[in-house]
Design goal:
heterodimer, A: 83 residues, 2 strands, B: mainly alpha, 5-stranded mixed β-sheet, 35 helices, elongated
């Protein structure tokens, strides 16, 4: 080694550790997916004069998307080893 | 209507129950059997996010704006998706550095600056007051509605003494004191309070769901019926759509999601339950999805209740925020209405208790203590026991907060809906986001930057949101709203610089966040931070890299143990301080407290313990006053960091070395075992070989001696003896050849001459070679094989060796006369199968596996046939060399069948084997 082993050199990837790992990347992806689904213009797609089992489509879609987001999060959090 | 006495009795009974839960929680904590050591309890305690705003306000919002009640729950859901990344880091930092509040957190990150922690506290107090007012408003409005339904909504009394909200404020303040400011704890954790909050979360959920089910299935004929009737009314049908007849304000939608996303972490009470009260980091794993699920469930019936109320009351003007109470009341369900009120009370008290405890800790630690420490009476050197003072300060702060909340309720609360009041608070705490999040991930953030950002953002919030809200309540002239201060229209608070098209909240959020971030980043980049600040930044951003042992301590100077002990006694109490020092002595390997070395580690220990009680900024001041410190330069910090990381690198190296040593030991042990067993095999082999050699040698020697000693031996007998000697010699030769052969094959030095072999011809040749042998034993040999067969690549001589082996084996075992041997040649897609079947005695099952081992002949010792015992092992070696396998199928007294299979392309070259193609 041509340079002295300082704290920074001795510990590579310190900075990257925060965002390392498939788990964290998945969470980031889920976050942005949720953000997209709940905002313009994707949310507007559900705004139709229709019903789902008697419930108006728009509120139903909001709650279903929300539930799916939570279910995905729960699955990843409770099965952290399936990488 | 419900009688006031019943409402008050129910409320008090509920609060007492709550207190009992908290008491049990504290009692169990002291016994070391924590009730809150559960991910579910942790998640439920997070649900303190759902306050009276959720309970009453959401229905009101839904009744006027449809899905607009939802963004403040979608935001937190998204925030929790990243919770495992961001909140876990905050928990880790708070645990390692004993952080007790969000002000402490921000101040610690930026060099333990008292100024910064004071500012954060101030923002928290001012920002949170409207939120407390909201709770007071909701509870007193609920009470009024329940006891006198005629006076729709709320009518605060003219006098403070006839005003329910005032008593509610006092009672809740008393309750918070009991919960959170009874004793002083260095970690600022309140197990009993958390247990009570989790319990409250359950109560408000069940109560709200009960009302929801009652409205949908009691007042209406299920969801389908309710929605069908709502869709029939155009005004209500609009509520179920996004656009609602007007342009949808995406900016506002976005702003509310962003705002609630930040608030769910940065509201003082959320920080308290999520970060400070966290028992185990692993609990977060479950809480990040259970908490959003809780929000989803509690919101399921918001829209149905809102629509139900609008349909039910029709044209009668009713405050939609009270539908939760007024619907059961109107339907004569007084018990349900009372239960619903208790649920709402639960939501409000939960919020108030945690919020006031969190903020009062901040006020006492970050505002009052630093000021007190400057006065003569409480100077660090003075000998006062300050624990009682600290508790007194906290209790006063709780009371003060409640009274401020009450004042705001009077000042501005009447004019605003619950939701609008809450959002004002959200916008205030969102100002913490840049400094805090930046501090977590960006080492460059500096104290002046954070201070400037917070000041700028907060001022903008006051100017664009707080002042207008007060003005609109009639306490200030609205002149400056419409025309700007001093007639400068560009400075109108709600259209700053002429920015139009945004609602007040979005407008304020945009400007405040803009100036906040710009000031924070800009000023941080302006100048390099000092050594102490840089050290704190490193400790925070790289918190996952630090274990307790290798964490660098940025301190240099001289200290004395008695000084530090006295300091701890003043702020933690004498007994507690003594026991802390004794624990430290035991850990540091000192015999007693006096023998402790007053080094940087001890100073750091004392500072962290004090930080738990008085906040890190005050603790820094106190420690600095008790010891002689040298100030650190940036180079010092870097050097200390290097030392720590070298230590860490060394310990990691050691760890790796010992690991690899362990691995090597295991490998060696395994190799040793293998060698031992090989050694045993070799011994067995040697004794077998020598035994096999001795038998023929003995007979050769005996016969030769006989012939030497007896010169008159008849020629016929002499000739017979010589024949025997020749046979035995041949047997010896064969044995030695086979041993050599075996050794060659096993060591991989055998020569293989591979070529395309016509198996039909090979089998025929093998059979004809052994014809004489079978003829002697009067045995009939049958050959069964297909007319045509592709050639196989292998060594014909070796294969012949195998065939001859099997055939001569068969010849040895067939009965005489009546022997019968069948040679069968088959083939399929995989390869060729050759079997040699005899009608001999067969091989017992237990011997079948052994006969392929060296020197394990079939039959017992008495009638052992002639042979070396190496034929089958050699055959197996050859077959396996060509990728095939050999086995025996046999049943006693039904003969046996030796079968081997060779694949078409199974040549498995072994290392060291000499492979020669077509050399014949």
């Amino acid at each position: 080694m041509g340079w002295p082993e300082t704290g920074r050199g001795a510990d590579p990837g310190k900075e990257a550790r925060v965002f390392e790992g498939l788990g964290t990347q998945r969470l980031l992806a889920l976050f942005f997916t949720g953000w997209l689904l709940f905002s313009f213009p994707l949310l507007g797609l559900w705004d139709r004069d229709a019903t789902l089992l008697g419930v108006p489509l728009f509120p139903a879609a909001l709650f279903i998307l929300w539930a799916l987001l939570i279910a995905t999060l729960a699955w990843w959090m409770e099965h952290p080893d399936q990488k | 209507m419900v009688s006031p006495a019943a409402v008050i009795a129910a409320s008090f009974a509920y609060l007492l129950l709550l207190f009992a839960v908290a008491y049990v929680g504290d009692w169990r904590a002291r016994q070391g059997r924590s009730v809150i050591d559960s991910a579910w309890i942790y998640a439920l305690s997070m649900a303190v996010y759902c306050t009276a705003w959720t309970y009453f306000g959401s229905v009101g919002r839904a009744a006027s704006g449809g899905v607009w009640f939802l963004p403040i729950y979608l935001g937190p859901t998204l925030a929790m998706v990243l919770g495992w990344v961001v909140i876990r880091k905050m928990i880790r930092i708070a645990r390692v550095y004993r952080i007790t509040s969000i002000a402490d957190f921000i101040a610690s990150r930026y060099g333990k600056s008292p100024l910064l922690s004071g500012l954060v506290t101030l923002i928290a107090v001012v920002g949170i007051v409207p939120y407390i007012a909201l709770q007071l408003k909701a509870v007193s409005a609920g009470y009024t509605l329940l006891t006198a339904p005629g006076s729709a909504g709320l009518a605060p009394g003219r006098h403070w003494d006839s005003d329910g909200a005032f008593y509610v404020a006092l009672i809740l303040a008393g309750f918070s004191m009991v919960f959170g400011a009874r004793q002083l704890d260095t970690t600022e954790r309140h197990e009993g309070m958390v247990a009570a909050i989790a319990f409250e979360s359950l109560v408000k959920l069940v109560a709200f769901l009960a009302v929801g089910v009652f409205v949908v299935y009691g007042l209406f004929d299920g969801l389908t019926d309710l929605f069908a009737r709502a869709r029939a009314v155009p005004a209500l049908a609009n509520l179920l759509r996004l656009e609602q007849g007007a342009d949808f304000s995406w900016a506002q939608w976005f702003a509310q999601i962003l705002l609630s996303m930040l608030s769910v972490v940065f509201l003082p009470r959320q920080f308290q339950v999520m970060v400070v009260e966290n028992v185990r980091e692993s609990h977060l794993r479950r809480a990040v999805w259970v908490f959003p699920l809780y929000m989803l469930v509690i919101n399921l019936f918001v829209l149905p209740i809102a629509l139900g109320g609008l349909l039910y009351f029709g044209s009668t003007p009713m405050n939609a925020e009270n539908f939760v109470l007024s619907l059961p009341l109107a339907a004569g369900q007084n018990a349900l209405a009372l239960f619903a009120f208790v649920g709402g009370l639960s939501a409000a008290t939960g919020m108030v208790i945690v919020e006031t405890i969190a903020v009062s800790t901040m006020v006492s630690n970050e505002l009052v203590m630093p000021l007190l420490l400057r006065t003569r009476q409480f100077r660090p050197g003075a000998g006062h026991d300050l624990t009682r003072v600290l508790l007194g300060v906290r209790r006063t702060a709780i009371l003060g907060l409640m009274l401020l909340g009450y004042s705001y309720f009077h000042l501005a609360g009447e004019a605003y809906a619950l939701v609008s009041i809450g959002l004002v608070s959200f916008a205030a705490v969102a100002q913490f986001a840049p400094a805090l999040l930046g501090g977590l991930y960006w080492k460059g953030g500096s104290p002046t930057g954070a201070l400037a950002g917070l000041l700028a953002g907060f001022s903008m919030w006051v100017y664009t949101l707080m002042l207008p809200s007060i003005a609109k309540s009639g306490w200030l002239g609205t002149d400056f709203l419409e025309h700007g201060p001093w007639g400068l229209t560009l400075l109108r608070p709600e259209q700053l610089l002429g920015l139009r098209g945004l609602d007040g909240l979005t407008h304020s959020l945009f400007w405040s966040m803009l100036v906040n971030i710009v000031a924070y980043v800009g000023i941080s980049l302006w100048r390099a931070p000092s050594g102490q600040v840089a050290s704190q930044a490193l400790l925070f951003v790289d918190v996952y890299d630090r274990s307790a042992a290798s964490s660098p301590i940025f301190w240099r100077g001289q200290a004395k143990v008695p000084d530090l002990l006295r300091l701890c006694e003043r702020f933690l109490g004498a007994g507690k301080a003594r026991s802390l020092f004794e624990t430290y002595a035991a850990r540091a390997g000192a015999a007693q407290v006096d023998a402790i070395r007053a080094d940087a580690r001890l100073v750091h220990f004392v500072e962290t313990q004090l930080a738990g009680a008085v906040g890190s900024a005050s603790a820094r001041l106190l420690v600095a006053s008790a010891v002689e410190e040298e100030s650190l330069t940036a180079e010092d910090v870097l050097r200390m960091l290097d030392e720590a990381s070298q230590l860490r690198a060394h310990s990691r190296e050691l760890e790796e070395k010992s690991e690899s040593l362990e691995r090597a030991t295991a490998e060696l042990r395994q190799a040793n075992e293998q060698l031992k067993s090989l050694d045993r095999l070799k011994d067995d082999f040697m004794s077998s070989v020598t035994h096999e050699l001795r038998t023929p040698l003995t007979s050769i020697r005996a016969l030769a001696e006989l012939m030497r000693d007896d010169a008159q031996m008849p020629p016929a007998q002499r000739r017979q003896f010589i024949d025997i000697i020749v046979t035995e010699t041949e047997r010896l030769t064969r044995l030695v050849n086979q041993v050599l052969d075996m050794a060659k094959i096993e060591s991989g030095h055998a020569q293989w001459h591979t070529s395309d072999v016509d198996l039909r011809a090979l089998v025929q040749q093998a059979v004809s070679t052994t014809t004489e042998l079978f003829h002697e034993r009067q045995t009939q040999v049958d050959v069964v094989m297909p007319d045509q067969l592709p050639s196989l690549r292998c060594d014909p001589d070796r294969l012949m060796q195998v065939l001859l082996n099997l055939l001569s084996n068969a010849a040895k075992f067939v009965p005489v006369p009546g022997g019968r041997v069948t040679v069968r040649l088959d083939h399929d897609a995989a390869g060729v199968t050759i079997s040699v079947r005899d009608n001999g005695p067969g091989v017992p099952r237990e011997q079948q596996a052994l006969i392929f081992e060296r020197f394990r002949q079939g039959g017992d010792g008495a009638n052992r046939p002639q042979g070396t015992g190496l034929g089958l092992p050699i055959s197996r070696q050859i077959v396996e060399h060509f990728g095939g396998r050999i086995w025996i199928e046999s049943k006693p007294r039904q003969g046996s069948s030796f079968v081997f299979q060779l694949p078409w392309h199974g040549l498995a070259p072994r290392p060291g084997a000499t492979q020669q193609g077509d050399t014949t």
